[in-house]
Amino acid sequence: MSRLGRIGAETRAAWFAFVRRRTAVFFTFFFPVILILIFGALIRTDPAGGGLFAEPPGYYVAGYLAVVVLFTPLSRIGSEVARHREGNRFEKLATTPLSRGEWLLAQTVVNVAVIGLASLVILGMVLAVTDATFAASPLVVPYLALAVALFCGFGALLGRVADSQDGVIAASNGVAIPLLFLSETFVTPALLPPWFVPFMDLSPLTYFARGLRAATYRPPDGAGARVGEAGLVGADPYLNLAVLAVLAAGFFAVGAYALPRTD
Amino acid sequence: MVIDASDVRRRYGETVALDGVSFAVDAGEIFSLIGPNGAGKTTLIRALFGTTDAEGDISVFGRPPTEVDRGRVGLLPQEFTPADRLTARELIAYYAGLYDDARDPDAVLADVGLADSAGTFYENLSGGQKRRACVGSTLVNDPELLVLDEPTTGIDPTGRRELWRLIEGLADGGTTVLLTTHYMDEAEELADRVGLLADGELVALGSPAELVERHGGDSRVVIEADDDRAAEDALRAAGYAPIDAGRHVSVPADATEISAIVERLAEAGIDYEGLAWRQPSLDDAYAALTGTDAHGGLDDGGETPPETTTTDVAPEGRA
User: Fold this and answer.
1) Which chain A positions have a beta carbon within 8 Å of B101's beta carbon?
2) Are both B110 and B164 inside the same structural domain?
Protein backbone atom coordinates (compact mmCIF):
# COMPACT_ATOMS: atom_id res chain seq x y z
CA MET A 1 0.00 0.00 0.00
CA SER A 2 1.40 3.33 -1.02
CA ARG A 3 1.49 6.48 1.00
CA LEU A 4 -1.45 7.61 -1.14
CA GLY A 5 -3.38 4.50 -0.16
CA ARG A 6 -2.83 5.08 3.55
CA ILE A 7 -3.88 8.72 3.25
CA GLY A 8 -6.90 7.62 1.25
CA ALA A 9 -7.95 5.11 3.91
CA GLU A 10 -7.56 7.70 6.66
CA THR A 11 -9.40 10.32 4.59
CA ARG A 12 -12.36 8.01 3.96
CA ALA A 13 -12.62 7.15 7.65
CA ALA A 14 -12.33 10.81 8.68
CA TRP A 15 -14.93 11.85 6.12
CA PHE A 16 -17.45 9.27 7.33
CA ALA A 17 -16.69 10.19 10.94
CA PHE A 18 -17.53 13.82 10.13
CA VAL A 19 -20.56 13.52 7.87
CA ARG A 20 -22.21 11.06 10.27
CA ARG A 21 -22.07 13.57 13.09
CA ARG A 22 -25.18 15.48 12.13
CA THR A 23 -24.77 18.16 14.76
CA ALA A 24 -21.23 18.90 13.61
CA VAL A 25 -22.32 19.06 9.97
CA PHE A 26 -25.27 21.30 10.76
CA PHE A 27 -23.32 23.83 12.78
CA THR A 28 -20.37 23.84 10.39
CA PHE A 29 -22.70 25.28 7.77
CA PHE A 30 -25.13 27.09 10.06
CA PHE A 31 -22.45 29.15 11.83
CA PRO A 32 -21.29 31.18 8.81
CA VAL A 33 -24.83 31.50 7.53
CA ILE A 34 -26.06 33.04 10.76
CA LEU A 35 -23.05 35.37 10.79
CA ILE A 36 -23.92 36.60 7.32
CA LEU A 37 -27.55 37.09 8.24
CA ILE A 38 -26.58 39.09 11.33
CA PHE A 39 -23.69 41.12 10.00
CA GLY A 40 -24.68 41.34 6.36
CA ALA A 41 -28.42 41.82 6.56
CA LEU A 42 -29.48 42.87 10.06
CA ILE A 43 -26.86 45.32 11.30
CA ARG A 44 -27.34 48.80 9.87
CA THR A 45 -24.38 50.78 8.65
CA ASP A 46 -23.60 54.08 10.39
CA PRO A 47 -25.11 56.74 8.09
CA ALA A 48 -22.14 59.00 8.81
CA GLY A 49 -19.82 56.43 7.26
CA GLY A 50 -17.95 55.45 10.41
CA GLY A 51 -18.00 52.52 12.83
CA LEU A 52 -18.23 48.81 12.16
CA PHE A 53 -19.50 47.48 8.85
CA ALA A 54 -19.16 50.85 7.15
CA GLU A 55 -17.37 49.32 4.16
CA PRO A 56 -19.19 48.11 1.05
CA PRO A 57 -20.58 44.58 1.52
CA GLY A 58 -17.97 43.07 -0.80
CA TYR A 59 -15.23 44.08 1.61
CA TYR A 60 -16.49 41.55 4.17
CA VAL A 61 -16.65 38.50 1.92
CA ALA A 62 -13.06 37.62 2.83
CA GLY A 63 -14.06 37.97 6.50
CA TYR A 64 -16.97 35.58 6.14
CA LEU A 65 -14.70 33.03 4.50
CA ALA A 66 -12.12 33.64 7.23
CA VAL A 67 -14.69 32.55 9.79
CA VAL A 68 -14.89 29.04 8.39
CA VAL A 69 -11.21 28.58 7.55
CA LEU A 70 -10.39 29.62 11.10
CA PHE A 71 -13.03 28.10 13.37
CA THR A 72 -13.76 24.83 11.60
CA PRO A 73 -10.21 23.38 11.41
CA LEU A 74 -9.25 24.62 14.86
CA SER A 75 -12.22 23.04 16.58
CA ARG A 76 -12.49 19.96 14.34
CA ILE A 77 -8.84 18.94 14.42
CA GLY A 78 -8.47 19.85 18.07
CA SER A 79 -11.52 17.76 18.96
CA GLU A 80 -10.39 14.90 16.74
CA VAL A 81 -7.00 14.85 18.43
CA ALA A 82 -8.72 14.84 21.82
CA ARG A 83 -11.02 12.00 20.72
CA HIS A 84 -8.06 10.01 19.40
CA ARG A 85 -6.20 10.51 22.68
CA GLU A 86 -9.17 9.53 24.80
CA GLY A 87 -9.69 6.38 22.72
CA ASN A 88 -5.98 5.51 22.63
CA ARG A 89 -6.18 5.60 18.83
CA PHE A 90 -2.85 7.33 18.39
CA GLU A 91 -1.19 4.56 20.40
CA LYS A 92 -2.55 2.05 17.93
CA LEU A 93 -1.72 4.15 14.90
CA ALA A 94 1.87 4.41 16.15
CA THR A 95 2.17 0.68 15.46
CA THR A 96 0.82 0.96 11.90
CA PRO A 97 2.62 2.35 8.84
CA LEU A 98 0.53 5.55 8.95
CA SER A 99 2.75 8.48 9.91
CA ARG A 100 1.61 11.49 11.90
CA GLY A 101 2.06 13.72 8.87
CA GLU A 102 -0.12 11.41 6.77
CA TRP A 103 -2.81 11.43 9.45
CA LEU A 104 -2.86 15.22 9.57
CA LEU A 105 -2.83 15.47 5.79
CA ALA A 106 -5.88 13.21 5.57
CA GLN A 107 -7.70 15.32 8.15
CA THR A 108 -6.72 18.43 6.19
CA VAL A 109 -8.12 16.99 2.96
CA VAL A 110 -11.46 16.39 4.70
CA ASN A 111 -11.43 19.90 6.12
CA VAL A 112 -10.62 21.41 2.74
CA ALA A 113 -13.59 19.57 1.25
CA VAL A 114 -15.95 20.58 4.07
CA ILE A 115 -14.80 24.18 4.08
CA GLY A 116 -14.90 24.35 0.31
CA LEU A 117 -18.56 23.39 0.43
CA ALA A 118 -19.21 25.82 3.28
CA SER A 119 -17.50 28.57 1.28
CA LEU A 120 -19.82 27.95 -1.66
CA VAL A 121 -22.78 28.28 0.69
CA ILE A 122 -21.33 31.49 2.12
CA LEU A 123 -20.75 33.02 -1.29
CA GLY A 124 -24.26 32.11 -2.37
CA MET A 125 -25.71 33.59 0.80
CA VAL A 126 -23.66 36.78 0.58
CA LEU A 127 -24.66 37.41 -3.00
CA ALA A 128 -28.28 36.59 -2.21
CA VAL A 129 -28.82 38.71 0.92
CA THR A 130 -26.36 41.58 0.43
CA ASP A 131 -25.30 43.85 -2.39
CA ALA A 132 -21.81 42.40 -2.34
CA THR A 133 -19.86 41.85 -5.51
CA PHE A 134 -17.29 39.10 -5.79
CA ALA A 135 -14.71 38.84 -8.55
CA ALA A 136 -14.09 35.16 -9.18
CA SER A 137 -10.41 34.27 -9.06
CA PRO A 138 -8.53 30.98 -9.31
CA LEU A 139 -6.55 32.12 -6.28
CA VAL A 140 -9.54 31.42 -4.06
CA VAL A 141 -8.80 27.69 -4.10
CA PRO A 142 -5.16 27.86 -2.93
CA TYR A 143 -6.06 30.53 -0.41
CA LEU A 144 -8.71 28.29 1.13
CA ALA A 145 -6.57 25.15 0.99
CA LEU A 146 -3.49 26.77 2.50
CA ALA A 147 -5.40 28.54 5.24
CA VAL A 148 -7.18 25.32 6.15
CA ALA A 149 -3.86 23.45 6.27
CA LEU A 150 -2.43 26.17 8.47
CA PHE A 151 -5.25 26.05 10.97
CA CYS A 152 -5.35 22.25 10.89
CA GLY A 153 -1.75 22.35 12.10
CA PHE A 154 -2.72 24.91 14.72
CA GLY A 155 -5.66 22.74 15.75
CA ALA A 156 -3.33 19.76 16.20
CA LEU A 157 -1.21 21.89 18.50
CA LEU A 158 -4.27 22.86 20.53
CA GLY A 159 -5.31 19.20 20.68
CA ARG A 160 -1.89 18.32 22.01
CA VAL A 161 -1.95 21.02 24.68
CA ALA A 162 -5.59 20.73 25.80
CA ASP A 163 -6.44 17.74 27.95
CA SER A 164 -10.01 17.12 26.78
CA GLN A 165 -12.54 17.94 24.08
CA ASP A 166 -14.01 20.64 26.30
CA GLY A 167 -10.56 22.11 26.75
CA VAL A 168 -10.00 22.10 23.01
CA ILE A 169 -13.21 24.01 22.32
CA ALA A 170 -12.37 26.61 24.96
CA ALA A 171 -8.81 26.95 23.67
CA SER A 172 -9.87 27.21 20.02
CA ASN A 173 -12.41 29.92 20.84
CA GLY A 174 -9.80 31.74 22.90
CA VAL A 175 -7.43 31.72 19.95
CA ALA A 176 -9.90 32.20 17.12
CA ILE A 177 -11.96 35.13 18.35
CA PRO A 178 -9.06 37.58 18.78
CA LEU A 179 -7.56 36.41 15.50
CA LEU A 180 -10.84 36.86 13.69
CA PHE A 181 -11.32 40.47 14.73
CA LEU A 182 -7.70 41.60 14.56
CA SER A 183 -6.77 40.28 11.13
CA GLU A 184 -8.37 42.72 8.68
CA THR A 185 -11.50 40.64 8.41
CA PHE A 186 -14.37 42.69 9.82
CA VAL A 187 -12.41 45.43 11.55
CA THR A 188 -10.45 47.69 9.24
CA PRO A 189 -7.01 48.93 10.34
CA ALA A 190 -8.45 52.45 10.47
CA LEU A 191 -10.60 51.42 13.43
CA LEU A 192 -7.57 50.30 15.45
CA PRO A 193 -4.97 52.46 17.19
CA PRO A 194 -2.01 53.16 14.87
CA TRP A 195 0.45 51.52 17.25
CA PHE A 196 -1.46 48.24 16.98
CA VAL A 197 -1.65 48.03 13.20
CA PRO A 198 1.85 46.50 12.72
CA PHE A 199 0.86 43.69 15.08
CA MET A 200 -1.80 42.59 12.59
CA ASP A 201 1.04 41.23 10.48
CA LEU A 202 1.67 38.65 13.20
CA SER A 203 -1.68 36.99 12.53
CA PRO A 204 -1.63 34.34 9.79
CA LEU A 205 -5.28 35.14 9.11
CA THR A 206 -4.30 38.64 8.04
CA TYR A 207 -2.53 37.28 4.95
CA PHE A 208 -5.58 35.20 4.09
CA ALA A 209 -8.06 38.05 4.46
CA ARG A 210 -5.85 40.73 2.93
CA GLY A 211 -4.71 38.62 -0.01
CA LEU A 212 -8.08 37.07 -0.77
CA ARG A 213 -9.72 40.50 -0.64
CA ALA A 214 -7.10 41.86 -2.99
CA ALA A 215 -7.81 39.02 -5.41
CA THR A 216 -11.61 39.13 -5.29
CA TYR A 217 -12.81 42.55 -4.17
CA ARG A 218 -13.09 45.58 -6.44
CA PRO A 219 -14.08 48.55 -4.26
CA PRO A 220 -16.37 51.13 -5.78
CA ASP A 221 -14.64 54.41 -6.58
CA GLY A 222 -14.18 56.48 -3.45
CA ALA A 223 -15.27 53.66 -1.19
CA GLY A 224 -13.88 53.60 2.35
CA ALA A 225 -10.85 51.50 3.24
CA ARG A 226 -8.20 50.78 0.67
CA VAL A 227 -7.36 47.15 0.35
CA GLY A 228 -4.24 46.07 2.19
CA GLU A 229 -2.29 49.27 1.87
CA ALA A 230 -0.44 48.58 5.05
CA GLY A 231 1.27 45.39 6.00
CA LEU A 232 4.39 43.40 5.45
CA VAL A 233 3.76 42.52 1.82
CA GLY A 234 1.11 45.09 0.92
CA ALA A 235 -1.89 44.13 -1.15
CA ASP A 236 -0.27 41.83 -3.68
CA PRO A 237 -2.41 38.67 -3.67
CA TYR A 238 0.50 36.50 -4.81
CA LEU A 239 2.85 37.77 -2.11
CA ASN A 240 0.21 37.28 0.56
CA LEU A 241 -0.41 33.80 -0.80
CA ALA A 242 3.32 33.07 -0.62
CA VAL A 243 3.48 34.16 3.02
CA LEU A 244 0.40 32.08 3.75
CA ALA A 245 2.04 29.07 2.08
CA VAL A 246 5.19 29.39 4.19
CA LEU A 247 3.16 29.77 7.36
CA ALA A 248 0.93 26.84 6.39
CA ALA A 249 3.95 24.60 5.83
CA GLY A 250 5.39 25.61 9.19
CA PHE A 251 2.19 25.16 11.17
CA PHE A 252 1.44 21.87 9.43
CA ALA A 253 4.89 20.48 10.21
CA VAL A 254 4.77 21.58 13.84
CA GLY A 255 1.20 20.30 14.21
CA ALA A 256 2.12 16.90 12.77
CA TYR A 257 5.13 16.66 15.06
CA ALA A 258 2.99 17.63 18.04
CA LEU A 259 0.48 14.83 17.49
CA PRO A 260 0.73 12.58 20.53
CA ARG A 261 1.49 8.89 20.43
CA THR A 262 1.07 7.99 24.07
CA ASP A 263 2.80 10.05 26.73
CA MET B 1 13.12 -14.92 19.95
CA VAL B 2 10.40 -12.37 19.19
CA ILE B 3 10.78 -10.05 22.20
CA ASP B 4 13.94 -9.64 24.22
CA ALA B 5 13.83 -7.02 26.96
CA SER B 6 16.62 -6.47 29.43
CA ASP B 7 16.76 -4.13 32.43
CA VAL B 8 13.92 -1.91 31.19
CA ARG B 9 13.40 1.19 33.31
CA ARG B 10 10.92 4.06 33.13
CA ARG B 11 10.20 6.85 35.58
CA TYR B 12 7.51 9.51 35.56
CA GLY B 13 8.94 12.12 37.86
CA GLU B 14 9.28 10.48 41.25
CA THR B 15 7.12 7.53 40.24
CA VAL B 16 8.96 4.41 39.15
CA ALA B 17 6.85 2.72 36.47
CA LEU B 18 9.38 0.07 35.43
CA ASP B 19 12.33 -0.94 37.55
CA GLY B 20 14.77 -3.20 35.74
CA VAL B 21 12.32 -5.52 33.99
CA SER B 22 13.85 -8.34 31.94
CA PHE B 23 11.99 -11.01 30.02
CA ALA B 24 11.83 -12.71 26.64
CA VAL B 25 9.04 -14.12 24.50
CA ASP B 26 9.63 -16.92 22.04
CA ALA B 27 7.97 -17.35 18.68
CA GLY B 28 4.55 -18.97 18.87
CA GLU B 29 4.27 -18.45 22.61
CA ILE B 30 1.35 -16.91 24.52
CA PHE B 31 2.96 -14.79 27.21
CA SER B 32 0.77 -13.07 29.77
CA LEU B 33 1.69 -10.09 31.91
CA ILE B 34 -0.35 -9.92 35.08
CA GLY B 35 -0.27 -7.47 37.95
CA PRO B 36 -2.31 -4.94 39.87
CA ASN B 37 -3.38 -1.59 38.43
CA GLY B 38 -0.34 0.64 38.12
CA ALA B 39 2.07 -2.28 38.15
CA GLY B 40 3.62 -1.15 34.87
CA LYS B 41 2.04 -3.54 32.36
CA THR B 42 0.89 -0.89 29.89
CA THR B 43 4.11 1.09 30.27
CA LEU B 44 6.07 -2.05 29.44
CA ILE B 45 4.01 -2.58 26.29
CA ARG B 46 4.56 1.03 25.28
CA ALA B 47 8.27 0.57 25.83
CA LEU B 48 8.24 -2.43 23.51
CA PHE B 49 6.80 -0.29 20.72
CA GLY B 50 8.85 2.81 21.43
CA THR B 51 5.84 4.96 22.28
CA THR B 52 7.34 5.79 25.66
CA ASP B 53 10.97 6.59 26.32
CA ALA B 54 12.34 3.75 28.42
CA GLU B 55 15.90 2.89 29.35
CA GLY B 56 17.30 -0.57 28.81
CA ASP B 57 17.78 -2.96 25.94
CA ILE B 58 14.68 -3.92 24.01
CA SER B 59 14.47 -5.74 20.73
CA VAL B 60 11.41 -6.89 18.85
CA PHE B 61 12.16 -9.25 15.97
CA GLY B 62 15.80 -8.38 16.60
CA ARG B 63 15.34 -4.66 16.07
CA PRO B 64 14.96 -1.64 18.38
CA PRO B 65 11.32 -0.73 19.11
CA THR B 66 11.18 2.29 16.81
CA GLU B 67 12.59 0.33 13.86
CA VAL B 68 10.29 -2.68 14.00
CA ASP B 69 8.54 -3.54 10.75
CA ARG B 70 5.02 -2.35 11.55
CA GLY B 71 3.56 -4.88 9.17
CA ARG B 72 4.67 -7.68 11.50
CA VAL B 73 2.93 -6.46 14.66
CA GLY B 74 -0.61 -5.82 15.80
CA LEU B 75 -1.51 -3.90 18.95
CA LEU B 76 -4.76 -3.56 20.82
CA PRO B 77 -4.15 -0.76 23.35
CA GLN B 78 -5.83 -0.69 26.72
CA GLU B 79 -9.28 0.94 26.63
CA PHE B 80 -9.03 1.34 22.87
CA THR B 81 -12.07 3.04 21.35
CA PRO B 82 -12.18 3.44 17.57
CA ALA B 83 -14.40 5.81 15.60
CA ASP B 84 -17.95 4.96 16.62
CA ARG B 85 -19.75 6.05 13.44
CA LEU B 86 -18.04 3.47 11.25
CA THR B 87 -19.62 0.10 10.57
CA ALA B 88 -17.70 -2.97 11.66
CA ARG B 89 -16.70 -3.58 8.05
CA GLU B 90 -15.63 0.04 7.47
CA LEU B 91 -13.59 -0.09 10.65
CA ILE B 92 -11.74 -3.22 9.61
CA ALA B 93 -11.32 -1.90 6.04
CA TYR B 94 -9.90 1.35 7.42
CA TYR B 95 -7.17 -0.39 9.35
CA ALA B 96 -6.54 -2.77 6.47
CA GLY B 97 -6.03 0.25 4.23
CA LEU B 98 -3.04 1.31 6.32
CA TYR B 99 -0.95 -1.75 5.38
CA ASP B 100 0.88 -2.79 2.25
CA ASP B 101 -0.26 -6.36 2.49
CA ALA B 102 -3.61 -6.56 4.21
CA ARG B 103 -6.15 -9.32 4.60
CA ASP B 104 -9.64 -9.24 3.12
CA PRO B 105 -11.78 -7.34 5.68
CA ASP B 106 -14.61 -9.85 5.28
CA ALA B 107 -12.26 -12.70 6.19
CA VAL B 108 -11.17 -10.80 9.31
CA LEU B 109 -14.79 -10.16 10.25
CA ALA B 110 -15.52 -13.86 9.87
CA ASP B 111 -12.52 -14.72 12.07
CA VAL B 112 -13.79 -12.54 14.89
CA GLY B 113 -17.39 -13.71 14.48
CA LEU B 114 -18.78 -10.44 13.16
CA ALA B 115 -19.70 -11.45 9.62
CA ASP B 116 -23.39 -11.02 10.43
CA SER B 117 -22.81 -7.59 11.99
CA ALA B 118 -20.59 -6.16 9.26
CA GLY B 119 -23.02 -3.36 8.48
CA THR B 120 -23.67 -2.35 12.08
CA PHE B 121 -22.14 0.86 13.39
CA TYR B 122 -19.49 0.27 16.01
CA GLU B 123 -21.48 2.27 18.56
CA ASN B 124 -24.42 -0.12 18.15
CA LEU B 125 -22.44 -3.33 18.69
CA SER B 126 -22.65 -5.12 22.03
CA GLY B 127 -19.73 -4.87 24.44
CA GLY B 128 -18.37 -8.25 23.38
CA GLN B 129 -18.81 -7.46 19.69
CA LYS B 130 -16.97 -4.16 20.15
CA ARG B 131 -14.00 -5.91 21.70
CA ARG B 132 -14.00 -8.48 18.90
CA ALA B 133 -14.09 -5.68 16.34
CA CYS B 134 -11.12 -4.09 18.11
CA VAL B 135 -9.25 -7.38 18.09
CA GLY B 136 -10.15 -7.65 14.40
CA SER B 137 -8.48 -4.31 13.78
CA THR B 138 -5.23 -5.88 15.01
CA LEU B 139 -5.53 -8.86 12.67
CA VAL B 140 -5.83 -7.02 9.37
CA ASN B 141 -2.10 -7.32 8.65
CA ASP B 142 -1.89 -10.95 9.77
CA PRO B 143 0.65 -10.02 12.46
CA GLU B 144 3.38 -12.35 13.63
CA LEU B 145 3.28 -10.65 17.03
CA LEU B 146 -0.07 -9.77 18.54
CA VAL B 147 -0.10 -7.58 21.65
CA LEU B 148 -3.39 -7.36 23.52
CA ASP B 149 -3.57 -4.99 26.50
CA GLU B 150 -6.46 -6.18 28.67
CA PRO B 151 -8.54 -7.40 25.74
CA THR B 152 -11.43 -8.84 27.75
CA THR B 153 -11.93 -6.09 30.33
CA GLY B 154 -15.57 -5.12 30.54
CA ILE B 155 -17.10 -7.93 28.54
CA ASP B 156 -19.30 -10.74 29.73
CA PRO B 157 -18.08 -14.32 30.37
CA THR B 158 -19.43 -15.58 27.06
CA GLY B 159 -17.62 -12.84 25.18
CA ARG B 160 -14.44 -13.56 27.11
CA ARG B 161 -14.54 -17.23 26.19
CA GLU B 162 -15.15 -16.39 22.54
CA LEU B 163 -12.08 -14.18 22.58
CA TRP B 164 -10.07 -16.89 24.31
CA ARG B 165 -10.92 -19.34 21.56
CA LEU B 166 -9.91 -16.75 18.98
CA ILE B 167 -6.57 -16.09 20.70
CA GLU B 168 -5.89 -19.81 21.06
CA GLY B 169 -6.65 -20.30 17.40
CA LEU B 170 -4.22 -17.56 16.42
CA ALA B 171 -1.50 -19.04 18.63
CA ASP B 172 -2.13 -22.47 17.14
CA GLY B 173 -1.53 -20.87 13.77
CA GLY B 174 1.90 -19.65 14.89
CA THR B 175 1.13 -16.11 16.05
CA THR B 176 3.10 -14.96 19.08
CA VAL B 177 0.77 -13.37 21.62
CA LEU B 178 1.64 -10.98 24.43
CA LEU B 179 -1.36 -10.46 26.64
CA THR B 180 -1.96 -8.36 29.73
CA THR B 181 -4.86 -9.18 31.99
CA HIS B 182 -6.36 -8.68 35.43
CA TYR B 183 -8.05 -12.04 35.25
CA MET B 184 -5.98 -14.87 36.65
CA ASP B 185 -8.22 -17.49 35.11
CA GLU B 186 -7.58 -15.89 31.73
CA ALA B 187 -3.82 -16.07 32.18
CA GLU B 188 -4.08 -19.62 33.51
CA GLU B 189 -6.29 -20.69 30.61
CA LEU B 190 -4.33 -19.08 27.80
CA ALA B 191 -0.73 -18.45 28.72
CA ASP B 192 2.25 -20.70 28.16
CA ARG B 193 4.17 -18.45 30.53
CA VAL B 194 3.21 -15.66 32.89
CA GLY B 195 5.16 -12.67 34.14
CA LEU B 196 3.89 -11.02 37.31
CA LEU B 197 4.58 -7.31 37.58
CA ALA B 198 4.25 -5.46 40.88
CA ASP B 199 5.38 -1.89 41.49
CA GLY B 200 7.32 -1.90 38.23
CA GLU B 201 9.27 -5.06 39.00
CA LEU B 202 8.89 -8.49 37.47
CA VAL B 203 8.48 -10.50 40.67
CA ALA B 204 7.74 -13.91 39.14
CA LEU B 205 8.12 -15.59 35.79
CA GLY B 206 7.15 -19.07 34.69
CA SER B 207 4.34 -21.25 33.47
CA PRO B 208 1.06 -20.91 35.38
CA ALA B 209 1.59 -24.37 36.86
CA GLU B 210 5.08 -23.46 38.02
CA LEU B 211 3.89 -20.26 39.66
CA VAL B 212 1.04 -22.06 41.39
CA GLU B 213 3.38 -24.78 42.63
CA ARG B 214 5.96 -22.28 43.86
CA HIS B 215 3.71 -19.64 45.33
CA GLY B 216 0.11 -20.94 45.43
CA GLY B 217 0.28 -22.68 48.81
CA ASP B 218 -1.63 -25.82 49.85
CA SER B 219 -4.97 -27.16 48.80
CA ARG B 220 -7.62 -26.52 51.46
CA VAL B 221 -11.16 -26.99 52.59
CA VAL B 222 -13.12 -23.76 52.85
CA ILE B 223 -16.06 -23.80 55.25
CA GLU B 224 -18.77 -21.15 55.52
CA ALA B 225 -19.80 -21.90 59.09
CA ASP B 226 -22.49 -20.22 61.14
CA ASP B 227 -20.02 -19.98 64.02
CA ASP B 228 -16.46 -19.66 62.73
CA ARG B 229 -14.93 -19.78 66.17
CA ALA B 230 -16.69 -23.08 67.06
CA ALA B 231 -15.69 -24.58 63.72
CA GLU B 232 -12.07 -23.60 64.24
CA ASP B 233 -12.05 -25.03 67.74
CA ALA B 234 -13.54 -28.32 66.57
CA LEU B 235 -11.05 -28.69 63.76
CA ARG B 236 -8.12 -27.63 65.89
CA ALA B 237 -9.07 -30.28 68.44
CA ALA B 238 -8.93 -32.86 65.65
CA GLY B 239 -5.37 -31.85 64.75
CA TYR B 240 -6.05 -29.50 61.86
CA ALA B 241 -4.67 -25.97 61.53
CA PRO B 242 -7.67 -23.84 60.52
CA ILE B 243 -7.28 -20.22 59.49
CA ASP B 244 -9.92 -17.57 60.13
CA ALA B 245 -10.23 -16.08 56.66
CA GLY B 246 -12.77 -13.45 57.62
CA ARG B 247 -15.95 -14.69 56.04
CA HIS B 248 -15.09 -18.37 56.31
CA VAL B 249 -12.71 -20.89 57.82
CA SER B 250 -9.93 -22.27 55.69
CA VAL B 251 -8.26 -25.57 56.53
CA PRO B 252 -5.14 -26.78 54.72
CA ALA B 253 -6.05 -30.28 53.58
CA ASP B 254 -5.80 -32.57 50.59
CA ALA B 255 -8.80 -34.23 48.94
CA THR B 256 -8.51 -37.43 50.99
CA GLU B 257 -9.20 -35.48 54.18
CA ILE B 258 -12.55 -34.00 53.13
CA SER B 259 -14.71 -36.75 54.59
CA ALA B 260 -12.86 -36.70 57.90
CA ILE B 261 -13.38 -32.95 58.18
CA VAL B 262 -17.09 -33.30 57.37
CA GLU B 263 -17.43 -35.99 60.02
CA ARG B 264 -15.60 -33.92 62.59
CA LEU B 265 -17.87 -30.94 62.00
CA ALA B 266 -20.95 -33.17 62.30
CA GLU B 267 -19.69 -34.68 65.52
CA ALA B 268 -19.17 -31.23 66.96
CA GLY B 269 -22.63 -30.10 65.85
CA ILE B 270 -21.29 -27.31 63.68
CA ASP B 271 -23.78 -25.79 61.21
CA TYR B 272 -22.39 -24.57 57.93
CA GLU B 273 -23.80 -23.05 54.74
CA GLY B 274 -21.18 -24.42 52.40
CA LEU B 275 -18.03 -26.43 52.21
CA ALA B 276 -15.66 -26.64 49.25
CA TRP B 277 -12.28 -28.08 48.53
CA ARG B 278 -9.96 -25.69 46.73
CA GLN B 279 -6.84 -26.43 44.83
CA PRO B 280 -4.30 -23.61 44.77
CA SER B 281 -4.64 -21.42 41.71
CA LEU B 282 -2.82 -18.58 40.03
CA ASP B 283 -5.02 -16.30 42.14
CA ASP B 284 -3.36 -17.68 45.24
CA ALA B 285 0.10 -17.29 43.76
CA TYR B 286 -0.78 -13.72 42.78
CA ALA B 287 -2.09 -12.97 46.27
CA ALA B 288 1.00 -14.45 47.89
CA LEU B 289 3.34 -12.46 45.67
CA THR B 290 1.56 -9.12 45.74
CA GLY B 291 -0.26 -9.13 49.07
CA THR B 292 -3.52 -8.41 47.25
CA ASP B 293 -6.14 -10.50 45.59
CA ALA B 294 -6.45 -10.42 41.82
CA HIS B 295 -9.29 -7.95 42.03
CA GLY B 296 -7.38 -5.31 43.90
CA GLY B 297 -8.49 -6.03 47.45
CA LEU B 298 -6.42 -7.12 50.42
CA ASP B 299 -5.61 -10.79 50.58
CA ASP B 300 -8.03 -12.42 52.99
CA GLY B 301 -6.21 -15.70 52.90
CA GLY B 302 -8.71 -17.71 50.93
CA GLU B 303 -11.54 -15.70 49.40
CA THR B 304 -12.92 -17.72 46.52
CA PRO B 305 -12.75 -15.56 43.39
CA PRO B 306 -15.05 -16.11 40.45
CA GLU B 307 -14.24 -18.96 38.13
CA THR B 308 -11.52 -20.69 40.19
CA THR B 309 -11.24 -24.42 40.49
CA THR B 310 -13.26 -25.65 43.43
CA THR B 311 -15.02 -28.86 44.31
CA ASP B 312 -18.24 -28.25 46.19
CA VAL B 313 -19.17 -30.73 48.86
CA ALA B 314 -22.83 -31.11 49.78
CA PRO B 315 -23.41 -29.93 53.33
CA GLU B 316 -24.52 -33.35 54.55
CA GLY B 317 -22.98 -32.73 57.92
CA ARG B 318 -25.40 -29.94 58.62
CA ALA B 319 -26.92 -30.64 61.98
Assistant:
1) 1
2) yes
Is pLDDT of B310 > 60?
Answer: no
CATH number assigned to the domain comprising residue B256: 3.30.70.100
| Same domain, yes or no: B195 and B243 | no
Q: Which residues pair with B31 in a beta bridge?
A: B178, B193
**Which pLDDT tens digit goes with each residue over A117-127?**
999 998 998 88
Q: Which residues of chain A have pLDDT under 50?
A: none
Residues B122 and B19 in one domain: yes
Contacts of B41 in chain A (CB under 8 A): none
Length reported for chain A: 263
Q: What is the ipTM metric for this complex?
A: 0.88
Secondary structure element (H or E) that encloses residue A14, with its range:
helix A3-19
State the best of B52, B81, B98, B122 to mutate against chain A, taking most chain A CBs within 10 Å: B98
Query: Is B97–A88 a contact, with Cβ atoms under 8 angstroms apart?
Result: no
- Who among B73, B82, B93 is closest to A89 (CB)? B82
Contact between chains at B83 and A13 (C-beta distance less than 8 A)? yes
Full residue range of the structural domain in which residue B60 is found:
3-206
Residue A113 half-sphere exposure, CB side, CA atoms within 13 Å?
Answer: 14
Closest Cα in chain B to A80: B83
Same domain, B239 and B144: no
The answer to whether the CB of B297 falls within 8 A of the CB of B291 is no
Terminal-to-terminal C-alpha distance of chain B = 60
